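Bug report (template v2)

What were you trying to do?
Predict the complex of my protein with cytidine-5'-monophosphate.

What happened?
Run completed; filing so the output is reviewed.

Input:
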Amino acid sequence: MRIAIDGPAGAGKSTVAKLLASRLGYAYLDTGALYRALTLAALKNGLLNDRNSLVQLASSQEITVTSTSNCQRVFLNGEDVTEAIRTPEVSCATSLVARIPEVRELVTAKIRELAQGGRIVVEGRDIGTVVLPDAERKFYLTASLEERARRHFREAQKRGFTLSWEEQLRQIEVRDRQDSSREVAPLKPAPDAIIVDTTDKTPDEVVEIMLRHLEGSL
Ligand code: C5P
């Protein structure tokens, strides 16, 4: 079985996807990390605003992922970039790179390849709608804008980034807008996705809700 989890930034996808994968003994795949890795490459090469060169660069990058149920490491041309792809700069730039159709094609093919064995929880923005429209189960997580910004703010502080609360709120708003309004594979729930609002719920509570929906099909 392949389980798709989509939703906006800060909805709790990564935490919940890891917990769910460990409860089921499944693998876990964070697909945002693939877009982040290509964005890091574009930033390093100063190509963020040069669409054609960026597409060319993206097709020449070797991205590998090692993942278990609760940990994923990402390598860009052999270099471990797991931490480097989490900076606020990369977070902001990623939705610009992710709206380029050729980049999406590359990443979509990679995700399908990684998910083909099944027994996997895959999280992102377009997994249930575009990447794995035939996934056996689909969830769409949401939460209020303030709560999502709060989660990212706490995470950024833990990582030592000095982002003000206003900047954090704005960053999430901008990403929401960019991810939902792009022409290719915009963020939206699949018609057959189960929608879970995580605003006032702990990750464990969300996982319990999901497990109840999965009962009988495991
Ligand atoms: O999930 P995460 O915040 O790491 O994703 C970073 C960005 O990657 C998102 O804001 C979105 O622009 C892009 N993304 C995407 N499709 C996915 C996963 C992520 O467009 N399946």
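What did the reviewer find?
The radius of gyration is 16 Å. The first helix runs from residue 13 to 24.
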